[in-house]
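Support request, please re-run this one:
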Amino acid sequence: MTNALGVLNIAIKADPKSGEPWVAKGLTYRSNDDPTNATAAFRQALKLEPTHFGALRALTETLFSQNDTNSVVALLDQAFRQPSKDANYWMVLGDMSAYVVRQKPSSAVASTGPMSGNVTSGVGLGAE
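Re-run finished. Output below.
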């Protein structure tokens, strides 16, 4: 793991505005049973690239593995509020919302998504 993290740190220094090496770093931590550092790395990727659907998916999975449903709901709510014209982004969010409902079908989780009153305004695609 140390070698992989070393290479990823070089990648982060080479392109500090890219979320991709942070996602890879998070996946490395997660595969080595370190969800705390994995979560931090995925969140850093999202800070750099708020619509990075790889980071969203990986963070959702990691939070679920920690039974942190409240953070998953908050994450998806925030994701639905991000402006994006990328159809893939919205398809991934729809898939992730369905995944969340399948995993933890509670009223709090099931109400997350573009059709709930809380996030409809986030579906805006920005100025045309």
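The two ends are 45 Å apart (CA to CA). The first helix runs from residue 2 to 14.
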